[in-house]
Specification:
Radius of gyration: 24 Å
Number of strands: 5
Helix content: 55-70%
Strand content: under 5%
Largest sheet: 3 strands, mixed
Bound molecules: zinc ion
Low-confidence stretches: none
Order of helices and strands: HHHHHHEEHHHHHHHEEEHHHHHHHHHHH
Shape: globular
Distance between the termini: 45 Å
Mean pLDDT: 95
């Protein structure tokens, strides 16, 4: 494998104008219409792919710059321009997809690009009509209002002013009363902003419902699934899967909570006790940023030369931004520049175990994107989200054997907690998903009724939950801190489906690490060439929708946790 010498500083992409992009589309249309030979058709499709790669790189870079420094006026201006141009670019892309889907040459085109991309486009073309262009811009603005509101939190705690991610280190403090007070301070922000939080969501729900109706859907659920490009499973499959989580996972989750009570010497586990697992408190990495990068290089070198070389390339190319700093957006993500064939990862190290988890997670996404870089068309560079999350969550588990490098004597505790948290996450993820189905099936519900719907979800999926005197979440407000519910509807069950696959990789790795890692790399190389369940089966894993799949991984987890 020859390694690229791309440096982030040299990634520059021209800002497109609508006129120029329209002219390029026109040229591609003409080239397709007049193409007689297969080679001519391939050449025209290649031109479209090049155009989309340039637009994608520009869009990635614009968003990344804004996230790296939200106070930079120039970055903010460029981001606004991108937000406004985006629906118009979607309109042009959808028009081209419609043309190719109804082309007389479709069969021949399928032999060039593969059949799968045509299935993806069949979903895409049902999610857009020019009639919803203004609604899409309004939706982005409402989403931005939520993000800005959440980012504006300034909480006084322990003599410092922290934001909603900053308070997290206190909500998982080893001292119980600190956790309790930190949760109160955290929810106080939501209580002060309840009206606005309810109002933004109410508008979003009604707006999304309206768009769905304009496109001919009964409600937003159908549109939401198509926007996620779900082509090989349905709402009914997801509902059945959630039922299995209740049956198979909730009992083990309850045992984890009971074990926690024992280890923490508590009569009753309150909400603020859920983030710690023993009296020692959560393990933390034993060094800072630069030290972590050295450990990471040794870790990937020890795992596989493909991973080691890849990470070396990321470091050398300055394709990592992991340190937290004022003005930088929160969270962690992976993006990519398809014009230069490289990914980029973004995080906010804060000294918690989450640094290692976020880092290995985003590296999983980045490694997959890199492994898929030579696939024939941009649509295959990433698979659909539930498959993307397999690459990331599986790497979190496949790096387990190397965790001594970061946590030394606490590595065993790290592994135990990582698995326990994974089990606890499954029912929570289902609650977030099921809640959104209720919300979009009943778009006329009042904010108060939505809070009641969330309480029903907690009773079903998180029956151990006890908020004590935390009034806001006790009244059904917890969901309002979940960004996905506002910003990325129906993108949440994906994590739970992927986790179910990642845990299968974990089980296999325990008995044959080398073989499992090569199956993982092969899956990364397949990128987005197939839909979810086909990718899962190609990696010799069982689809989470198959009955018995969850029961099997839960059994392995129970044994490992000795519960
Ligand atoms: Zn992810």
């Amino acid at each position: 494998m020859s390694l690229t010498t791309v440096d982030f500083a040299n990634i520059q992409v021209e800002t497109p104008t609508l006129e120029q992009v329209k002219a390029e589309y026109q040229a591609i249309n003409t080239a397709l219409d007049t193409a007689k030979t297969r080679a001519e058709k391939e050449k025209a499709l290649q031109k479209w792919d090049d155009l989309r790669r340039r637009l994608e790189s520009w869009s990635s870079l614009t968003s990344l710059h804004f996230s790296q420094d939200t106070r930079n006026e120039d970055y903010k201006e460029k981001k606004d321009y991108s937000d406004e141009l985006q629906p118009k670019l979607t309109a042009l892309a959808v028009e081209m997809k419609r043309k190719l889907l109804s082309s007389a040459d479709k069969v021949e085109l399928e032999t060039i690009l593969g059949k799968h991309v045509f299935s993806l486009w069949s979903a895409d073309v049902t999610t857009f009509e020019p009639a919803i262009e203004d609604d899409l811009v309004r939706e982005s603005k409402l989403v931005d209002r939520y993000v800005e509101l959440i980012a504006s939190a300034e909480i006084e705690f322990a003599g410092e002013t922290v934001n909603l991610s900053g308070i997290r280190k206190y909500t998982q403090d080893s001292d119980r009363s600190t956790r309790d007070r930190a949760e109160k301070a955290h929810w106080n922000f939501f209580s002060q902003n309840q009206e606005l939080l309810d109002e933004i969501y109410d508008e979003l729900v009604k707006l999304r419902h309206q768009m769905a109706q304009k496109l001919g859907y009964d409600n937003y659920i159908g549109l939401g699934y198509k926007k996620m490009q779900r082509i090989d499973y349905t709402e009914a499959d997801v509902a059945r899967y959630r039922d299995e989580v209740v049956k198979e996972v909730v009992p083990l989750a309850e045992k984890i909570i009971a074990q926690k009570a024992e280890k923490l010497n508590l009569d009753r586990v309150y909400f603020w006790d859920e983030s710690v697992f023993d009296l020692q408190g959560n393990p933390t990495p034993k060094g800072e940023h630069d030290w972590m990068l050295v450990q990471a290089q040794q870790m990937f070198d020890a795992m596989h030369p493909e991973l080691g070389d890849f990470f070396r390339m990321m470091v050398k190319g300055n394709l990592l931004d992991l340190k937290t700093r004022p003005g930088k957006a929160g969270g962690g993500f992976c993006t990519s520049f398809p014009t230069h064939d490289v990914p980029y990862i973004f995080a906010n190290f804060n000294g918690t175990k989450g640094d290692v988890e976020v880092f290995t997670h985003e590296m999983g996404h980045a490694f997959q994107n890199w492994q898929s870089r030579n696939l024939s068309i941009i649509d295959y560079l990433w698979p659909t989200y539930e498959s993307c999350e397999i690459h990331s969550m599986s790497l979190e588990f496949l790096t387990w054997s190397q965790m001594d490098k970061f946590f030394t004597i606490d590595a065993d505790r790290f592994r135990q907690i990582h698995l326990a948290e994974s089990i606890l996450f499954l029912p929570y993820g289902c609650a977030v998903d099921h809640f959104q189905h209720l919300v979009y099936a009943n778009p006329e519900a009042t904010p108060k009724q939505r809070h009641q719907m969330w309480q029903e979800m907690e009773a079903r999926y998180l029956p151990w939950r006890n908020y004590g005197d935390l009034a806001y979440p006790a009244k059904g407000g917890l969901w309002q801190e979940k960004q996905h519910i506002y910003c990325y509807p129906f993108y949440y069950i994906d994590y739970t489906l992927a986790l179910c696959c990642a845990m299968q990789f974990w089980v296999k790795a325990e008995s044959d690490y080398k073989q499992t890692l090569s199956e993982y790399i092969a899956l990364c190389q397949r990128g987005g060439k197939a839909p979810f369940q086909e990718l899962v089966r190609s990696a010799n894993l069982v689809s989470p929708f198959e009955s018995g799949c969850l029961a099997k991984v839960v059994k392995s987890a129970r044994e490992f946790l000795k519960l």
